Structures are given as structure tokens and as C-alpha cells.
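DUF2759 domain-containing protein, pasting as requested.
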Amino acid sequence: MYLAEEAAKAATSTSNINTFDWFMLAFTILIAIGFVRLLMARPKKNVFAIGFAFVSLAVFLFSDYVMITESWMK
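C-alpha cells follow.
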């Protein structure tokens, strides 16, 4: 009986995923697209923009990793 109650409670519980999480993932994808486009620029590459995009992408990827492992996988 106890297992059935726990299963029913788990089935009706709300998700740990918030709306902000989806925005974080969308911004990470946009930054990755921009980073790839900066790397593919042919005539002259903007080194400052490439570095800034790389740091931004690294921060967002790390925050997405923490967000997924700490809040989604509970």
C-alpha cells in the first residue's frame, strides 16, 4: 500500500524544470551559434569577439550542467 501511495505521489508531483531553465538553454544555443559563426568568418577574424563568446559559452555551459545535474536529476 505504501509503494502505491508513493508512486501516485511521484506521478502527480510537479516538475523541477522552470521557465528560466528553458531560457538558459536557448541562450546557450544562441551563444554557440554565434561562436561558430565568428570562427567561420573568412576575411578577418575579430579575436576579442571570439574570446568573449568563448568565455560566455563556457559560463553558460557550466551553468547548464549545474542546472541539469542539481535540479533536474533530483
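Note for the archive: The two ends are 24 Å apart (CA to CA).
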